[in-house]
Input
Amino acid sequence: MASVKTGYDATLTVTSGSTYTGGELTNVRAFISEEPVDISDLGSIWRERENGLLDWEIAGTKNVAAMASGFLALARLVGTVTVSIKEPGSTGIAFSGVGIITRGGVDFPMGATTEEISIVGDGTAPSVPA
Output
């Protein structure tokens, strides 16, 4: 089962040395994946499981404003980044965590040029309000 938060025009902030805040994001998705953990031992008759958190991922899309300060430049970062998402029209943080940028790119379709970024967790649990 995965928990998902998504929104139009949410604010994605990525910090690693300098801070990038994408205020023109058209779509942001935050996923938390879970999977059952086998806790059986030799005395178990039936397989015993408990629910365990597995991973998290954030993906965002935005219209291109300036190529030099976009997601392609962020994708070159090495190491971990701090990421947070503010819900549209709110000052509250909907999701925050420390992760690694796995993908950053630009798309040149027939319409407006867009950029995409994906960040996965570095092994620490994210902060998600209930």
User: Anything to note?
Assistant: The CA atoms of residues 68 and 74 lie 10 Å apart.
